[in-house]
Amino acid sequence: xxxxTAIVLLIAVVLGLxxxxxxxxxxxxxxxxxxxxxxxxxxxxxxxxxxxx
Length: 53
Hints:
This protein is an all-alpha fold. It is built from two helices and no strands.
């Protein structure tokens, strides 16, 4: 694994945790928070990959 890949995945996980935590605080449900966190992490990977070079 390259340093670029590790940084992109680390930032994606952090963003997913933030989005999931905020969704949990607003929706008060585990399922919507997990779904929002996974979606945010998954969609941020291609964007971060292109932004961080």
